[in-house]
Amino acid sequence: MVRRAKKALARGGKRFFEKALFAGRRLLVERNLDPARDSVIISWATYSPWLQDAEFRSCHAAIRSHTLVDVYRCWELWHLLGQVRAVPGDVLEVGTWRGGTGALLASRAGGLGLGAEIVLCDTFTGVVKTGAQDKGYRGGEHADTALPVVQELLRRLGLANVRVLQGIFPEDTGGSAADRTFRLCHIDVDAYRSAKDVLDWVWPRLATGGVVVFDDFGFASTAGIAQLVHEQERRTDLVCVQNLNGHAVFVKTAG
Questions:
Q1: pLDDT, position 105
Q2: What is the CA radius of gyration of the chain?
Q3: CB of 56 within 8 A of CB of 35?
Q4: Complete edge-to-edge strand list for the sheet that includes strand 90-94
Q5: Residue 94, φ and ψ in degrees, nearest 5
Q6: CA 217 to CA 222: how far, in whole Å?
Q7: Which of 34, 122, 217, 235 has the fewest CB within 10 Å, making it most exposed?
Q8: How far apart are alpha carbons 215 and 187 in whole angstroms?
Q9: Domain ranges of the chain
Q10: Rounded CA separation 165/129 (Å)
Q11: SS (H, E, C) 18-54
Q12: Is 103 within 8 Å of 153 (Cβ atoms)?
């Protein structure tokens, strides 16, 4: 009986792997991806620490309809903010869309007793500053949101440690936070130039030991973000962690 079960499990695993490879090849063709650079990543890792964190799961359930960020990246933001709790400064998110990850960060900051302000920035009119590096975007995407949508989510969750700024960052709204120091910055803007402008603005204001999290790292539609990360990771004042779940993380090592 045990031997038959093992054989059935092996056959099932083989079929799963074959289907995954077939789907991966089809995806490469459909999206006109470069097989020398792109592949479909199948992870066999199973450890899911968010399943043991009741506070995270409760918060994620409340914000999941307000974000396009999956649970893995949401958990990473939650965990990273806990890792930099001893670093001074506020929290900045640029590209907040409907407020899901911003509310997640605000909830985490409150639970940790950080006393930090969460500054959320968005145009609320869609993606801006697209260029040749951003093959998946033309500008104006993700405009299906509005400032009151974010404000209502924050009100419903009872989050008072948040400021929401509407406009292009940093040109329109950077001045409102120019005197701040930050411990964490979440960049979720999809386009190369926009992400670079945020990084250039926040880096001098980021405390040593603070982190910058790039969303959309490794997705075919946001190749400009990967290009920016690879250009900047050569610097000597940071450590870069490439997490192929869709994040790249810069840790500031020098002021």
A1: 98
A2: 20
A3: no
A4: 162-166, 118-122, 90-94, 182-187, 206-215, 247-252, 238-243
A5: -115, 120
A6: 7
A7: 34
A8: 6
A9: 1-42, 47-252
A10: 18
A11: HHHHHHHHHHHHHCCCCCCCCCCCCCCCCCCHHHHCH
A12: yes
As to burial, measured by CB atoms within 10 angstroms (0-12 exposed, 13-18 middle, 19+ buried), residue 43 is: exposed
- For residue 179, how many other CB atoms are within 10 A of its CB? 7
Task: Please answer whether residues 106 and 118 qualify as being in contact, where contact means their C-beta atoms are separated by less than 8 angstroms.
Answer: yes
Q: What is the token pair recorded at 248?
A: 């790249």
> Residue with structure tokens 């402008």?
197
Token pair of 244 as six digits: 């192929």
What is the spatial distance between Cα 137 and Cα 208, in angstroms, rounded to a whole number?
Answer: 33
CATH architecture for the domain at 47-252: 3-Layer(aba) Sandwich (3.40)
> 184: which strand partners?
91, 211
Residue 34: predicted pLDDT: 72
The CA distances from residue 113 to 183, 206, 213, 243, in Å, are 14, 20, 22, 28
